[in-house]
Design goal:
Elements (H helix, E strand, L loop, with lengths): L5 H14 L11 E6 L2 E6 L11 H5 L6 H22 L6 E5 L9 H15 L3 E4 L5 H11 L4 E6 L13 E5 L2 H10 L3 E4 L4 H15 L8 E4 L1 H16 L13 E3 L2 H14 L8
Parallel strand pairs: 2-6, 3-4, 3-7, 4-5, 5-6, 7-8, 8-9
Antiparallel strand pairs: 1-2
Amino acid sequence: MKVFSWAELSISALETSEQAGLRGAGKGIKTMADDHSASCVEKASLPTLLGGLIGTEKQFLSGKRDRGADLESAVKIFLEFLRGFEFFGDIDRPCVTVFGSARFAPGHRYYEMARELGFHLAKEGFAVMTGGGPGIMEAANRGAREAGGLSLGCNIILPMEQCANPYLDRFIEIDHFFVRKVMLVKYSRAFVVMPGGFGTLDEAFETLTLEQCHKLDRFPMVAMGKDFWGQLSTFVRGAMVSEKTISLEDLELLKTTDSPEEAVRMIREGVEQGRPIGAID
């Protein structure tokens, strides 16, 4: 019996959707080399007709639509998942995902903290995965690259374009935020949450929820930037724990530190022991 690759399956799914009269968005996927800011970056190309996927998340979330439109969206979402599985499925080492803001420039203390973190993670043998954009994401990828490690990105396609940073060895571009979050979580053994905005909070709390509800193994999770996260910690303890919307034991899912070396140590110990690494301060 023939064994089909993810790429062949995605082509088959797309051809099926076209036969059903849906508006197709390309003929499959591939991996290609692409010169990007003087570095050779391997990326998974978007389907041939790029416009077929850009903006599909907004269309999908626009409200009630006819069944054909929703079926078309389902096929496009399926294809994005297949592209991600094909792209990240052959990574040869454990990954750590670093979440954080795109708005911190080189020289900022949080940028440099993330850069040093990426360096130490790579030296410990971890691949460093980020959302692939600028700021904290760039810094962590940069540190991994400088240490000679593997630097990965899962970039999001936005109306105001977020370009992939130049320190990626491999990256993929995704249109749907929820598909991107699955890829950032699925292929990682630990998570680091750096300072960030709504997107970072979304990623952090969804990952914590998955662990809390036992939908995800309790992999190590570290929040870096004690000053930044201090007020949130006060809210979590003063409101959420006191009102019993979460339990005191849930705080064991997250630990805070300002030290990249300590963060890597906690991740290494947590991965080796297969348990959460301590309580939020």
